[in-house]
Amino acid sequence: MQTSELKNLKIAIVGAGYGGAAAAKALSLLGADVDVYEQAHQIREVGAGIGLRPATMNRFRQWGIFDAIAKVTSPSEYFEILTATGDPIMKETWPADGEQTHTHLIHRGDFIDALLGVLPEGMVHLGHKLETVQDEGDGSVLTFAGGRTVEADLVVGADGIKSVVRGQLFSDRGPVFSGEHAYRAVIPVDATHGMAVDDNLRMYIGRGTKVYLLPLRHRGQVSFDITALCPDSTWNPQVTKDDLLKTVEGFDERLVSITRDLDMDDVNVRAVYDIDPVDTWHSDSVVLVGDAAHSMLHHQGQGANSAIEDAGALADALREASSVKEGLALYQATRKPVTDELQRISRQGWSEDEIDEVFPGQKPAAATPKE
After folding, report:
1. Which end of the chain has fewer CB atoms surrounding its CB within 10 Å, N or C?
2. Are 96 and 114 contacting, i.e. CB atoms less than 8 angstroms apart?
3. CA dihedral sign of residues 19, 25, 26, 31
């Protein structure tokens, strides 16, 4: 689209999480008039660590915000997968993207704060709970709780796994329970019994349980995550310390000790859900990004990275295409094959028998389905 067309484009983004904030940055750099509407009255990410891949960091470099993100991260050279008792299974460097070779480990709260911090003041509007979206072809109308309406040439649905935009326009299929729980806590490095020795991610797997140690050295902390099989599909289940200890029976005694030392008030407990692939992500004036489009299980560590890549690809497509409609089609054609495959691979988990097949999903070249 021509620069003049992009500058006349009024864009409303629903949701101020990773995907929404990244889309706001990428699309505002095109010159478009962008507003973000978030239902929460305060944006707060519960504690846990994630890894921002080299390709993601290169997007931030392209948008001129690399330093703002990098200063609240720890650069990691490789990740390691081990048995429950610490025997090595795999040790690999992160898939490079050009000269960028490090994955940057970051606290979720720091990440969303940094992303929102690079947006112009007044762009994000809190306390806006979306009730309906009317797709009128050449534009759309959003109605929020309380009756406020907003008209936009383009609506970006970045409203997460329970997306209202997706549910009303693209798919009425709800989230799918994985049969797993995730237990997450951020603890001091000193509480890891000597297991956090550098800035590299380590995963210990055994008997359907995965334990992740993700160092946040810049904070003097470590993200300690347990993912374990459990039939309870309650979104926010109630668990005890004994429940957690049962999931790590037979693991390295230091991991058992870390679990025993946890303060349950500091442990975030969630049932793990994703969604089935959505056939169509866009109409002529509405498009989905991030978890709203392709929420995936966390076994590949690709949820946040995929949302950032969506934002970049959407901006690229609008710049390259001759119209919004054509741009949205190009965006879906670019991103959907990649995320369909990541969703599939993520559902396989990280059992020792699956490592050989699952690991290639980390590499960008393997994210394209075979002919």
Report:
1. C
2. no
3. positive
